[in-house]
Amino acid sequence: MTFLTPEESGHVSSLWGKVDVEKVGGEALGRLLVVYPWTQRFFESFGDLSSPSAIMGNPKVKAHGKKVLSAFSEGLHHLDDLKGTFAQLSELHCDKLHVDPQNFTLLGNVLVIVLAEHFGAAFNPSVHAAFQKVVAGVANALAHKYH
Amino acid sequence: MVHFTAEEKSTILSLWGKVNVEEAGGEALGRLLVVYPWTQRFFDSFGNLSSASAIMGNPKVKAHGKKVLTSFGEAVKNMDNLKPAFAKLSELHCDKLHVDPENFKLLGNVMVIILATHFGKEFTPDVQAAWQKLVSGVATALAHKYH
Predict the structure, then answer these.
(1) pLDDT band at B105 (very low <50, low <70, confident <90, very high)
(2) Cβ distance A48 to A105 under 8 Å?
(3) Distance, CA of A98 to CA of A92 (rounded, Å)
(4) Which end of chain B has fewer CB atoms within 10 angstroms, the N or the C?
(5) Which residues of chain A does B109 touch, with a Cβ-Cβ cutoff of 8 Å?
């Protein structure tokens, strides 16, 4: 199953090559926790999440953000088999972490916003469309093993 | 009913003051049509929507985008009264235009992304959170008169 057109794949690879996964990961997860505060419930062991600056500066948030985005990055190498690539993570999020799959869509949207913020005009409509498709695909793949 | 703190209101107003409504409106509507192509069905009379560049350059898209965003400006002036402010537009979108209210959320997300591309670092997590709340409030208000 071809998920992205060759042009869309090109947009994704080209932009992703310039992404600092550590920094963007921390920012995306941080923004998720700020913008959608109920998501903080999954991270009670992370310490101080009492304000946007506490969240964005929190070292556990940054470290976990990097971990999440590295997994996402892995997905980008397997766009034609996202469900297979994320099968184990899907089971983990359902069986152990009990995360509502709607949150994957929220994180995907936050990631798109962080990319838009970093890349400005370079995050043009075609690039935006390609990434929106990717995050939707990843969110679906992560929800796939839910029961 | 959505409630905005004084800080959120001032954050929103401060950014809105710097937005070029004509340009941002055209870009928001254009990106909606590119990123979520099924939305093009509401704009069959707009002429050439055959590619991302055709859409973004289309004068009818730009004009209509400006109209939509100007009306969004009403939200910024009526943050405590979104439902009444959008009551007539809600009826219009339901009774005459037959737009699925899910599309209001999509347009709201696209707007947040455009603000992120335009304002970069200035589009901090707090600013994002306030705007996400506003676009969500507007989407709810626009769906309110649906039956």
Answers:
(1) very high
(2) no
(3) 8
(4) C
(5) 109
At B72, list the tokens. 């969004």
Apex CA A102: angle with CA A91 and CA A132, to 5°? 100
Cα distance between residue A37 and residue B29, in whole Å: 29
Q: Are A43 and A64 in contact (CB under 8 A)?
A: yes
Residue with tokens 């992120």: B116
Which of the residues B7, B128, B136 would you substitute to probe the A interface, choosing the one with the greatest number of A C-beta atoms within 10 Å? B128
Cβ neighbors of A37 (< 8 A, separation 6 or more) are none
Q: How much of chain B, in percent, has pLDDT values that exceed 70?
A: 100
Q: How far is B132 from chain A (nearest CA, A)?
A: 7
Q: Is B52 part of the contact surface with chain A (CB cutoff 8 Å)?
A: yes
pLDDT in tens, B48-70: 999 999 999 999 999 999 999 99
Rounded Cα distance, B111 and B16, in Å: 12
Q: Is B123 on the interface with A (CB under 8 A)?
A: yes
The CA angle B68-A109-B61, to the nearest 5 degrees, is 25
